[in-house]
Amino acid sequence: MEVEMRQPNKTYANYMKYYVQAYPSTGSFDCGYEGRGAFLQGVRASLHAPDGTVTSLSGKVVDTDWEQRNYHGDTRLTITFDGDEPVSLYFVVSRKGIEVSAACPEGWFLQTTGRFIWGAMEDSFAVCIGREERDLRAAVGPAVSTADNALFDRADGSAAEISGADQLRLTYDWELNGYAFEAQGNHWLACVRPHLYETLFQTPYKKINKKNTFPVPPAGWMTWYAVKFDACEKAVLENAAWQKEHLADFGANTIWVDWEWYHSAFDIHGPEGIDYFHPDPVRYPHGLRYVADKIRELGLIPALWIGPTNEPASNQFIEENPDTVLAKQVAWCGEYFFDLTNEKFLNEYLPAAVKKVKEWGFEALKWDCLPVTLLFADQYHEYMAHPELTSEQALREAVKRARALLGEDFYMLSCAGAADREILFAIDLFDGARIGGDIFNWREFINDFVARVMRFYAYHNTETYCDPDNLVIRPEFNSLDQAVSRTSFLSVLGLPVTLGDNLPDLPPERVELLKRCLPALDAHPMDIRESHHESDRVIANLTISRSFEQWNVVDVLNLLEQDNRVTVDLEADLHLKKGRYLVYDFWNKEFLGVVEGSVTLELRPCASQVLAVRPYQGVPQIVSTSRHISQGGVDLKEVAYEAKTRLLKGVSAVVAGDPYEIRAYDPESGKLMVREYLPEKTGDMTWEIAF
């Protein structure tokens, strides 16, 4: 059989991992990457004249050409389109990516549009790579902004990026269930960042595990900050019962028993007979199994502090195996520190300690003492059974063994709150990482909470939950303005909500703050970078995307202990399109009106204002709701306006006995309408507002 002689079609160009495929019949093209297929699909071009005339180039291909020049490190594809003046698109495919450029008549520019696909929809979201402004951006749902230039795939930590265009806009189409892009300009570059976190942060990447105890960030009470060394069975169960009655329907689902269960103070030799396996019998007379069972009977999740690399006092295991102790040195958490490479520690003590957590009935753990464990592993390294292992290698092996014993469905929080080394340690093995220090007063909140969140937020809900530690809002440490600020910053960014006050003692107005920050939002970052705050303010900008609307919730935090006037530019600071917006002040319950350009806020010392910023639609629309600080992000499930009947209808998730306000704007009257409901039961409530 004679082999057919075929002519080259000159529509495909490949260099290393990138390729371009042109389709002359439709005048479109795809840009692809090895192993991922086409990530820019069905891209079409149009020509824009100085007088505003737009000429589509679809279906007008008259010629294609292919070229691979020796020693130039690229492959080139040219598509020429017919017209009064022929227009050519040039593709340079190289190891850097795919450069797209056009030879246009003077004064004209090219616009390209197409599908933008990177990863499965549950793991793909829009981000910006390379932005330098000092703010924080987060999103719930497939949100987009004018700042975004890439899609991030949470599954493997990679991103596809478009750069160099005069103007780039990403959008999300709910009907197509996917993203699209629009680039204006005669030159742009499409490239892939296959190992983004490894490249930017020099850290390993593993997708966050959402199939364990907490598919969304946990929320609930913790002993240490609330009652410190007064923690005991009675205090735990009283707070658990109070949380069940007053906060469970709002989203508080967890009770954390912290380190006091076998520690009585800092920096002292622990009491004899009390160790990891034997809780303090005075504080917990019925044992921890009893406590965990009682928490679970309330419908809450019991969680436990552990420090299995050290003991506060000698015990039978240490006495029988003194060679397992690397160092005897008093530290805040004990004085007997194990040799992490000792076989008896790895094969006997550690498995027994880890299994105990499950035997007692706890469903999550907080693994503490990491910084001091690594410190002593460094200082006494030569005495290890296997000094050829680094300190981090040794501790990592211990964590790996614990993970294998507990399983992937068990939530593990690493508790460090120190330097990068400890915070990022084994981030791919833990489900959460404590990033903040012990935080009680306002200065600690700014230095060890806000600053840490800004630095590490890129990791949140991508490969771990970033836990800045407890929300402490009692009058002992906070004015009411400071309590509002602390609650707002935590909640707008969707961070774990760990309650650090004795709940029955909280004043009613501060309990109200907790209700408005629960549950924790399932938010992700919109910037893959480290950030730092301004000296006088922080802007945390949350974008919420639902099928019926996209809006922003903006927390403007005054870092100063004096009055501060802050102007927020809607385009430059919030990355919104130019236009009119409805702005509502959540905490002050004040409608700021229809705003264009910017809004100026007068902030009291240490105060926050949380604004809902919604695009003006010209028809009756929601401005804000009272259920949650997200102003619809938790409660609004359906919203629609019927022009014929002038009815605004919807479905909201509400809490029994919690007054629920819907604030809606009527463009005809220019007034805000407020409708209040008192739900009789927790669940979905159907409502309608007539205009």
How would you describe this protein?
The structure is a single chain. The protein is of the alpha+beta class. It has 3 domains: 12-156 and 158-194; 219-525, TIM Barrel, CATH 3.20.20.70; 537-690, Sandwich (Immunoglobulin-like). It is 18% helix and 36% strand. Strands 1, 2, 3, 4, 5, 10, 15 and 16 form an 8-stranded antiparallel β-sheet that branches. Strand 2 and strand 3 (28-33) form a beta hairpin. The longest helix has 17 residues, at 343-359. 47% of the residues are buried.
Task: Give the biggest sheet.
Answer: 8 strands, antiparallel
Structural class: alpha+beta
Separation, N- and C-terminal Cα atoms: 78 Å
Overall geometric form: globular
CATH fold naming of the largest domain: TIM Barrel
